[in-house]
Design brief:
Layout lengths: L2 E6 L2 E6 L4 E2 L2 E2 L1 E8 L2 H17 L4 E4 L11 E5 L13 H9 L3 E12 H4 L11 E4 L5 H16 L10 H8 L11 E5 L5 E9 L9 E9 L4 H15 L4 E8 L3 H8 L3 E12 L3
Parallel strand pairs: 5-6, 12-13
Antiparallel strand pairs: 1-2, 2-5, 3-4, 6-14, 7-14, 8-13, 8-14, 9-10, 10-11, 11-12
Helix pairs in contact: 1-2, 4-5
């Protein structure tokens, strides 16, 4: 991926010229953004946009470190609580700097929390289309190879999707293996043994070595209802492990899982935005 790091006094960001498609056209993305002052932020954004324009680009997405497999989104609203593990974090003025540079919202997301004593009580009706099984804790590389294969299929229709190689995917996720808790990772399997869905949960180690919250980080399914069953098993297992709260992390506002999170009584504590700029407009 072609990248260009721009540093000014008090600010930096990375320009990724080969980002995902937006509105059917290729885009560049701006990621790894930080600034000490609004003035420094405005200047580094100006230089980045100029670099993209000089390279022939006419669509810019940010904040996004190249694609949706990596860090993206900016915090737009918060209750002030501490960031959870692997959550994007930005200073309050950074979203305003993007807007001042001409960016507008192109996608919205949220994170919510729910008491496990509340949500772990419900159980969806059994399905003949699949069964849920917990990860056995063995061969983590095989685990992530399965997660990669299903993710590519399940997420390929999502907005801003861009393919990633299996080797790059493994390089991202294998370092987190020491933090995994097998009781928070589940598969949905069809009667023939093929994978119908997965759920990847992890303790919120941002709280310290003995966190009270478990994060429902990512799940995907190819069978109707599998996501609900996976979430139910995650909530019940997290409660049995002694966790008090589940964090439903980084959900797209229009995703079916957003409706499910609301139905389970979760309370939104953070909102995020992805921003876009058309240079031909």
């Amino acid at each position: 991926m072609t990248t260009h790091i721009i540093r000014t006094e008090g600010a930096k960001l990375t320009v990724y010229l080969e980002g995902p498609e937006w509105e059917g056209a290729p885009s560049a993305t701006l990621g790894d953004f930080s600034c000490e002052t609004p003035e420094a932020g405005r200047e580094v954004l100006r230089r980045a946009i100029e670099h993209i324009r000089d390279a022939g680009g006419d669509r810019v997405i940010g904040p996004m470190s190249g694609d949706t497999w990596h860090s993206y989104r900016v915090v737009s609203e918060s209750d002030g609580s501490a960031a959870f593990l692997m959550e994007p974090t930005h200073k309050p003025h950074e979203a305003e700097l993007f807007r001042a540079a001409g960016f507008s919202v192109i996608s919205k997301y949220f994170s919510a929390r729910v008491a496990l004593a509340q949500t772990a009580q419900a159980s969806p009706a059994a399905s003949e289309a699949f069964e849920i099984e917990a990860w056995d804790g063995r061969n983590p590389e095989a685990l992530f190879r399965q997660v990669y294969a299903l993710s590519v299929e399940a997420f390929s229709r999502n907005a801003f999707y861009k393919p990633i190689s299996e080797s790059d995917f493994l390089a991202m996720y294998m370092p987190v293996v020491p933090m995994l808790k097998r009781e928070l990772i589940f598969f949905a399997r069809r009667p023939d043994g093929s994978l119908a869905g997965f759920l990847f949960g992890i303790p919120n180690y941002a709280e310290g070595p003995n966190p009270s919250a478990a994060i429902l980080k990512t799940y995907a399914s190819l069978e109707r209802g599998a996501g609900r069953h996976l979430a139910s098993h995650f909530h019940k297992s997290a409660l049995q492990l002694g966790f008090e709260t589940a964090i439903h992390a980084l959900i797209h506002d229009d995703n079916q899982s957003a409706e499910r999170s609301v139905a389970e009584g979760a309370t939104v504590f953070r909102r995020y935005e992805l921003l876009g700029l058309r240079l031909d407009g």
